[in-house]
Amino acid sequence: MSNDPDEKLAEELLESIFKASRTFRNWMREDISFSVPQFRILSYVNRNKDCSIDDIALYLGVSKPTASKIVEKMRLKELLYRIENRNDRRKVAIGLTGKGAKVLEEARLKAILKLKNRLSMIDINSKSQLRDALKILAGLTG
């Protein structure tokens, strides 16, 4: 490790992001009974109406066959629907079912409640610092 303060901060930030991701993944498994990729797909499809498997694969950073398998499992659980293009059978639009929207909202609310409970343990100055840090992080990643 170098003595460069920016490099050290970058390493600490990366480790914090990985740790937060593990925590969220564990919460999903414990409370919601589906995976983080499934939650991310529901969120993505909710924001991007009638998107494609290619869009979902790109968003998740996985191959098209992997995205297709996950989407098919979710379709069988009636969380997503598929609409085939009449002119090109290779093109399929993916949408969120009513059940999928309900499951997404329940999962989102459970995650927010867990975070809210954790946030209640820190003081107002720390919360203010966290808000400032989130603004900075959004600027770095946006």
Strand/helix succession? HHEHHEEHH
For the record, the CATH class is Mainly Alpha
**What is the CATH superfamily label?**
Winged helix-like DNA-binding domain superfamily/Winged helix DNA-binding domain
Helix content bin:
over 70%
Q: What is the CATH architecture term?
A: Orthogonal Bundle
**Amino- and carboxy-terminal Cα gap:** 27 Å
Low-confidence stretches: none
Percentage of β-strand residues: 5-15%
The count of DSSP E runs of length 2 or more, i.e. the number of strands, is: 3
Number of domains: 1
User: How confident overall, as mean pLDDT?
Assistant: 89
Description:
The chain has 142 residues and is mostly helical. It has one domain (34-141): Arc Repressor Mutant, subunit A. The chain is built from 6 helices and 3 strands; from the N terminus they run H-H-E-H-H-E-E-H-H. It has helices at residues 5-32, 36-47, 53-60, 64-76, 98-119, 124-141, and strands at 51-52, 80-84, 92-96. Strands 1-3-2 form a 3-stranded antiparallel β-sheet. A hairpin with a 7-residue loop joins strand 2 and strand 3 (92-96). Helix 1 crosses helix 5 (98-119), helix 2 (36-47) crosses helix 5 (98-119) and helix 3 packs across helix 4. It is globular. The relative contact order is 0.10. The mean pLDDT is 89.
Overview features:
about 140 residues; mainly alpha; Arc Repressor Mutant, subunit A; three-stranded antiparallel sheet
